[in-house]
Design goal:
nine-stranded mixed sheet, Rossmann fold, alpha/beta
């Protein structure tokens, strides 16, 4: 890997309004270039060996929606190869579900959606984790998902919520994070105009649901940003920066 590759991080997006946001700001502060691939726009997957790390973001589709989105199968295989090769991986929401599926675990629709601000708790395994072990035992995060997953073989479960046991897991330098601490109120407002996202909100909370969730996120944006900065900085320092 040449110096340019050591300073470039691959970001896989599935919809334009779900960028890395706070995570990308942190990458920029550390001098990393971002190579962005919009898979929903048909952009091709590059060689994973060309990047210091892979970040996979969320999206409105399910991790196994191959009929509607045939490129998902190739993405899951790509993730499996990258993780097997030891490329540090950070997956958010759909990115966490894709990681679980790529490593052989079941991904499925949960009993009820989590949309809004919810508490999560760290597990005993998180105490010794160099990334999530830096957080308090219980903290609040922004959630927007209805799918969930089983843990892949060999994974460490690091956080859980009341409704979903698997909120964060890790396999070596690969981390799957179900929640969206990278998102501020402005970006969430863009999500609210996506038909599938808006209709999900209205089914959950009625016509006033969108504004209620956005107001809630505005009130908690700084707390989410603090969590995002703590864990992502720690992941970079532990797994990505040493290879630079």
């Amino acid at each position: 890997m040449n110096p340019t590759q050591r300073s470039t991080v691959l970001v896989l997006q599935h919809i334009s309004c779900e960028p890395p946001a706070t995570y990308e700001e942190i990458l920029d502060a550390h001098g990393y270039r971002v190579h962005r691939v919009e898979l929903d726009e048909g952009q091709p997957l590059p060689d994973h060996h060309d990047f210091a790390a892979v970040i996979v973001m969320g999206g409105p589709m399910g991790a196994l929606d191959d009929v509607a989105h045939p490129w998902l199968a190739a993405e899951r295989a790509y993730i499996a190869r990258a993780v097997a090769a030891g490329v540090p991986y950070w997956g958010v929401c759909l990115g966490a579900q894709l990681l679980a599926a790529a490593l052989g675990a079941r991904v499925y629709t949960g009993s009820s959606p989590e949309v809004g601000t919810y508490d999560v708790e760290l597990t005993e395994d998180a105490a010794g984790d160099p990334v999530f072990g830096l957080l308090p035992d219980r903290f609040s995060v922004f959630q927007w998902h209805s799918d969930t997953f089983d843990l892949p073989a060999g994974a460490r479960r690091l956080a859980a919520s009341a409704a979903y046991d698997n909120q964060v897991f890790a396999v070596g330098s690969a981390y799957g994070v179900q929640f969206h601490v990278e998102v501020g109120a402005g970006l969430a407002a863009e999500w609210a105009v996506v038909d599938s996202y808006r209709s999900a909100l209205e089914r959950l909370y009625g016509a006033a649901g969108t504004q209620r969730v956005l107001d809630e996120l505005t009130d908690t944006a700084e707390a989410n940003r603090k969590v995002a900065s703590t864990v992502f900085e720690a992941w970079l320092e532990t797994f990505v920066l040493p290879g630079r």
